[in-house]
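In response to reviewer comment 3 from the previous cycle, which asked for concrete evidence that the modeling workflow produces usable outputs, we include below a single protein chain processed end to end. The sequence was submitted unchanged, and the resulting structure tokens are shown without manual editing.
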Amino acid sequence: MPELPANFRSLYRLFLRTTSAAVLHHPGATKNLRLRWRPLFTETAKVTKEIEGSASDTSPELRDARLAWLKECHTRVDNTLRLLYTASLSRGIPHQLTRNLGYLTGNERKRVISTAFSTMKKWKPQESYPLTPNPLTAKEIKSATSKKNEEAFKRNASGAVAEVVRMAEAAGKLTLGSNDVELNPRWLSERSPRKRRR
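The workflow returned the following structure tokens.
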């Protein structure tokens, strides 16, 4: 696969700097915003490489569709950069919007980590033998049902917010990133209790 063109790399570096400036270089907020827009740039890089390395046997229709998608993406990114730049200069609606987008990603990141930890069973030495597990108690069943309902509520709420974000993107011809956050195994180690030094 060919390397990414210099103009794409420059655009990505500019976007990283602008997201940091939009939240006054706050480390946590900067991380959340960059995490929010990373899937877009990953997909854009993939399409760019496909166009740069497309063979002669690639259908003109497919190549034209990719170029049209890339052109639309660049337009939206340019408009988003204007929004982020405005957010870095004022404390008006653009700044509040950018801050809230960071909150959304941060909350989703916490939810993903919490869900991952909740699925990990605690080791209970007294229940190691016999190998046949003991049946769940009424309290455990109630707790599991409550957690399941809470998780469903959070997913539905996140989906509703994502729909509002999509409508705002269409109205403003920009991109506001993705509410979806994939679990990074490194996050679990960061949240795990550290060993005490002797």
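The CA atoms of residues 60 and 119 lie 48 Å apart. We consider this sufficient to address the reviewer's concern, and the full set will be provided in the supplementary archive.
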